[in-house]
């Protein structure tokens, strides 16, 4: 018998999308049709997606799903994500030297010691 208290729990992953993002969903064994949609709600490893655009031959499937379905993050792609990456890669690098980070502020005790001296 497995002790549930000793089983390691998976930590939630950072969702690759946010509510309101427009996504493309690819067809797979778990997703019956490929479509374009909008994120409605985020879950631990998936998202509720409204079905906005789909191929005409998938009309019946989209209607059966009532215009919404839950999709795992690995089947989601943000629309326009590739274009954003390409623009970042094409941006010229600056020849200006990197500036050093500002020093961390002193703690209260260190400030108080200096004031009393």
From TrEMBL:
Residues 8-21 have a biased composition (Basic and acidic residues). Residues 78-90 have a biased composition (Basic residues). Residues 1-21, 78-117 are annotated as: Disordered. It comes from the Bacteria. This is Uncharacterized protein.
């Amino acid at each position: 018998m497995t002790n549930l208290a000793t089983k390691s729990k998976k930590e939630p992953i950072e969702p690759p999308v946010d509510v309101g993002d427009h996504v493309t969903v690819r067809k797979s064994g778990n997703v019956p049709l490929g479509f374009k949609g909008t994120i409605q709600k985020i879950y631990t490893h998936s998202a509720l997606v409204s079905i906005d655009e789909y191929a005409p031959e998938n009309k019946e499937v989209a209607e059966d799903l009532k215009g919404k379905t839950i999709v795992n993050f690995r089947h989601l792609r943000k629309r326009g994500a590739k274009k954003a990456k390409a623009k970042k890669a094409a941006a010229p690098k600056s020849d200006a030297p990197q500036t050093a980070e500002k020093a961390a502020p002193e703690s209260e005790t260190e400030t108080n010691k200096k004031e009393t001296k």
